[in-house]
Write a structure and sequence with these properties.
Length: 216
């Protein structure tokens, strides 16, 4: 009888060890050997929430949401919407009697650390546009009947932005703040990764075909 009782207790302990991993807790990043051109960082909390960020040679991205450990072999990430960065440009829009729009702007990084040369600006739904000079500045004018009231700015490695030109504007002056390129996951995004050896200290995810990535 005592032997059966001990076997039952042992069985229950094994069950607990095998199936009690319902959450992760802590900050994990892929090991140096697995980074290649991408670095991943996960922060998991016991309440089921997570934060995720990654960095590549072309930009960075991030997401938040809820995670699930599914069927003891998969990690499911359910992303939630993140309020987008507020694109605050230090621009002044003026009105003077004129049939042209005069532009005198400078593109700088949002942290005010350096100019951004070669940023392309286009008037949406038109064939008019310009690019900033080597020092990030540009002075130019356009006939009002040739342009639209929305400008888009873009370049390699920066976040594409748009801003509207108030009706009647004939002068635009000031700074356009530029943000590094980034991706943010939305509530429609879900990711499911098969995992190996999931434990509180480290785990592996099958991120790519036939390739496991170690996180510690």
């Amino acid at each position: 009888m005592a032997m059966k009782k001990n076997i039952l207790i042992l069985f229950l302990l094994i069950q607990t060890v095998c199936f009690s991993q319902k959450y992760l807790s802590g900050v994990y990043t892929n090991t140096k050997e697995d980074r290649s051109f991408e670095t991943d960082i996960f922060e998991f909390k016991k309440n089921g929430s997570f934060k995720y960020a990654f960095f590549t040679c072309t930009g960075f991205g991030f997401g938040i949401g809820k995670y699930e450990i599914v069927k003891s072999d998969s990690l499911k990430l359910n992303f939630e919407n993140i309020e987008d960065f507020s694109i605050q440009n230090e621009l002044k829009f003026g009105t003077t009697p004129s049939d042209s729009l005069k532009i005198n702007i400078k593109t700088i990084y949002a942290d005010k650390n350096g100019n951004t040369p070669g940023v392309n600006f286009t008037f949406v739904n038109s064939n008019k546009g310009f690019a900033t000079d080597f020092d990030g500045t540009k002075k130019i004018s356009f006939k009002l009947n040739e342009i639209t009231n929305k400008i888009e700015a873009f370049s390699i490695g920066i976040k594409r932005i748009q801003f509207n030109i108030p009706k009647g504007t004939t002068v635009i002056e000031g700074n356009v703040l530029i943000y590094p390129n980034y991706w943010d996951f939305k509530s429609i995004d879900k990711k499911i990764f098969a995992y190996v050896n999931l434990n509180p200290h480290n785990f592996k995810l099958k991120r790519y075909k036939n390739h496991e990535v170690q996180y510690v």
